[in-house]
Amino acid sequence: MNQWAILSGIEGNLAALEAVMANIRPSSRGVSDLYILGDVVGLRGNNRAVIERLQSPRRGEPQPLVCTGWWEEQCFSLHGLSGLPDAPELMAKFGGDGVQRLWESLSRSDVQWLRSQPGGFHELDCLLIHGSTVSYADELTPDTPAIQLCDRLIRADANTLFCGRSGLCFKCVVEPSQLRSTVITLDGTQEPQEQGKTPRRVVGVGSVGRNPGQATYTLYNPGNNSVTFKTVAYNNVKDPCYR
Fold first, then answer.
1. pLDDT at 185
2. Within 10 A of 49 (CB to CB), how many other CB atoms are there?
3. What is the pLDDT of residues 70-122, one digit of tens each?
4. Tens digits of per-residue pLDDT, 153-191?
């Protein structure tokens, strides 16, 4: 039984990442693919150590497939690689101290490695992404209106959208009974198109490093479409190398 392990929100927390890696390592889990949906780095722990760990998987571990998230986009902005200069989103949320801490926690080569990762993964009938195709900052939750979830699924052209932005573990199923989409261009309004009525779902994959002492992630079996949420307890040891 091959399963995907889907992680997000490590946020520089090496102890939490190690706990999850140890949890998925047993052969009984049958993990064949490891996806990390952004927010590898953050303002806690040791960002460089986490990146090094992901770059060098240990024997028997799947090669991590990493995409970019909100924290990575802040790094790119700080380093002038994309987006607005000087990371205004980061400044607004964490102030100058947060900007300085993130800048000092990563080397230029670390940021370039993060920049080389894709924005998401389209596998089978699934899209695995940090936020959504609308934005890396698009935070989907169980309280997001159904019509908005449906919009994100149609945009993604996926039956299952796995996302990590909220840091929550959740599963929302959307079952449209009648749904049409209309495209308006400069040439006029196109003919309405019927969208499929197959149930679709949005899955929040949890957060590895956001909650001290408790890491959450998701297992997905593409053979039977089952989703399982996992919680791993670990010792929250503060890293003296990084405040």
1. 65
2. 16
3. 999 999 999 999 878 889 999 999 999 999 999 999 999 999 999 999 999 99
4. 989 989 999 999 999 999 999 876 555 555 666 676 666
Relative to beta strand 200-205, strand 169-174 is: antiparallel
Q: Minimal CA–CA distance to 10: which of 39, 47, 48?
A: 39
What would the DSSP string read from start to end of 187-228? TEEPPPEEPP-S-EEEEEE--SSSSTTEEEEEEEETTTTEEE
Q: What is the pTM of this model?
A: 0.88
User: How far apart (Å, rounded) are the C-alpha atoms in residues 8 and 49?
Assistant: 16
The H-assigned helical ranges of 88-145 are 88-104, 108-115
User: Residue written as tokens 């998925």?
Assistant: 24
Residues 160/125, Cβ–Cβ less than 8 Å: yes
Q: How many CB atoms lie within 10 A of CB 112?
A: 14
The single residue listed with the structure tokens 């003296």 is 240
Task: Residue 209: name the closest of 14, 5, 64, 4 by CA.
Answer: 14
Q: DSSP labels for 130-167?
A: SS-SS-TT----TTS-HHHHHHHHHHHT-SEEEE-TT-
The identity of residue 212, as a single letter, is P
**What are residue 189's DSSP bridge partners?**
184
Looking up tokens 């019509």 gives 147
